[in-house]
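ligand=4'-phosphopantetheine
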Amino acid sequence: MSTAIYPGSFDPVTLGHLDIIKRSAAIFDHVVIGVLNNTAKKPLFSLEERVNMLKDAVSELDNVSVESFEGLLVDFVKQKNTNVIIRGLRALTDFDLEMQMAQSNRMVASDVDTVFLSTSLQYSYLSSSIVKEYARYGVDLKEFVPECVISKLIDKMK
Ligand code: PNS
């Protein structure tokens, strides 16, 4: 059975993330979404909130599960008995950082590979940061985040 890990901060999950998740789920038998618990960062949503929003967003995808992880991504990947990481590439601006992460991961775990999926065109410039900025200014969010995230974002901004 082929398993792939789709890691990220997901603060919050966007339709761009969901697009990558759906396409990965069509390629791999099982996709585990790994939500990073990064104690050095101060996310808008708690780890539990981010995990729950993702669980809600992927509830109709039978071969997708959501878990949190701490520490090195490659350790989480190995813990899940796989060696495949999925990342979405939006534009050229993502390339440098993504290559750096993929190469760093291979430096400590040479059997771990990163598979890049090109983000669908309509989400090329969408990010969790832009979504939070839009939410702050009351922009309609239905084109950017799953339905279940909209009310949570509005509540946070109150
Ligand atoms: O959604 P993001 O914030 O772009 O995801 C970044 C993430 C979680 C994939 C990356 O920060 C990560 O893998 N962090 C875990 C720590 C680690 O393994 N670092 C070494 C590789 S850069």
